[in-house]
Specification:
This is NADH dehydrogenase [ubiquinone] 1 alpha subcomplex subunit. With about 220 residues, this protein is mainly alpha-helical. About 35% of the residues lie in helices and about 10% in strands. The relative contact order is 0.06. The N terminus is likely disordered.
């Protein structure tokens, strides 16, 4: 019982050690205690019956607080809550409870320091009116969306360049001496090229009307 801490006297330590002994005539046994002085006990839900050796037995777990403690002031640590609800098998030691208490106190101090640093920062309402308006204008300028790109003209130019690259050499103004048949003295006639009439798509482009011709019946 040396793990119970120096705050427990030798007489009480001996009494706790005596209550923890698993003697056969006892109905309940002491499991441990917390830093507030609450004790935790366990006992069988029902006595074993020799005629039914396979009867289900369950160890119940309870907490017993000092008589001087009011019911509204009874507080059970989280580790003992888990033990009472059968969420952990081993009872927590006093060292584990002390370490958890120190961790919570350290977390509370760090949270208080963070709150103090946040309070020390200047607020928006404390800034002068002129600087506040300038800051708001800068934020509005940063939040303005970028202007949309006008891709209609660019698309038309790209389509026109692709049409020119695909146009035959005669239609693109190839000299007559370099055209096919020029060496034989033949003249090549350039017919009405449909690629010249082609233009890139735009907002005002409309498809031409098409009238199908009647097919001859076979």
């Amino acid at each position: 019982m040396s793990s119970l801490g120096p705050q427990i006297g030798p007489v009480k330590r001996a009494w706790y050690r005596w209550k923890m002994l698993r003697l056969p005539w006892r109905k309940r046994f002491l499991v441990g205690l917390d830093l507030r002085g609450n004790t935790y006990w366990t006992f069988l839900d029902q006595r074993p019956d020799p005629s039914t050796p396979d009867a289900a037995l369950r160890w119940r777990r309870i907490v017993q607080y000092p008589r001087s403690t009011h019911l509204s002031e009874v507080k059970v640590p989280p580790q003992w809550h888990q033990w009472l609800r059968h969420q952990r098998e081993d009872a927590p030691s006093l060292g584990e409870q002390a370490a958890d208490l120190a961790r919570r106190e350290r977390t509370r101090l760090l949270a208080a320091e963070a709150d103090a640093r946040w309070e020390a920062k200047p607020r928006v309402m404390d800034i002068p009116a002129a600087e506040r308006e300038q800051l708001q204008r800068q934020q509005q300028q940063q939040q303005q969306p970028a202007p949309a790109l006008d891709t209609g003209d660019m698309r038309g130019k790209i389509m026109a360049e692709e049409a020119q690259r695909d146009t035959p050499r005669a239609a693109t103004g190839t000299p007559a001496d370099t055209a096919p048949g020029a060496k034989e003295g033949k003249t090549t006639e350039v017919k009405d090229d449909p690629w010249k009439r082609a233009s890139g798509p735009s907002e005002t482009w409309q498809p031409e009307a098409w009238t199908p011709s009647s097919a001859r019946r076979r």
